[in-house]
Amino acid sequence: MTQFNNSYYLMRHGQSEANVAGLIVSAPFIGTTAYGLTEEGERQVQASLAHFEGPRPTRVISSDFLRARQTAVLAARYFELPSPELDVGLRERFFGGWEGQADSGYGQVWQQDEADTDGSLDKAAEDAGSQGQGAVEPVSCVLQRGLDTLRALDTRHAGEVLLLVSHGDLVQILQTAFVGLAARAHRRVPHHQTAEIRSLVSRGQSWPMIS
């Protein structure tokens, strides 16, 4: 597989109740059932869809977290498409022990990501996570999860325009592979705003080379 069979757009969910409360909500057992969109989040989504200038999506694929699902439903209705397909590969990055804590913790995690030039912290987090210690999901794992999701979708579909509805860290980290940045440098990618739709890759473009 050297070239993409489809075009992909990334959409971050609209403002959520977790955003307003200033909380980190990344655990699936919480995020899939609670902390959906606010009214402002719904307005953000509708405005973003109305201003979308890309080709009309042919299907919507979404994280199964409530805030993403609700965003995806609005998108599918707007484009008059069937109900969104859910894919756990598009879930939020898991923030381990930061779960339920103030979202100021994001900045500390991102600083650690950026400082991990040799991957040692990433590897330690991966090992701790495998031992059930609740570590933050490593950027390398988030990137691999995103790329694996793309590969699976690109195997199942061809000649389509897919709108992928996901979360801040997943979309930031996934974009690094397409702009020549290391995954740990994901905050150097222009900030992906809530409800923003951004082109990731077009049909016929080459798959990124990941070291």
From TrEMBL:
Pfam families: His_Phos_1. Signal peptide: none annotated. Residues 113-135 are annotated as: Disordered. InterPro entries: His_Pase_superF_clade-1, His_PPase_superfam, PG/BPGM_mutase_AS. Coiled coil: none annotated. GO terms for molecular function: catalytic activity. SUPFAM superfamilies: Phosphoglycerate mutase-like. This is Phosphoglycerate mutase. The lineage of its organism: Bacteria, Pseudomonadati, Pseudomonadota, Gammaproteobacteria, Oceanospirillales.
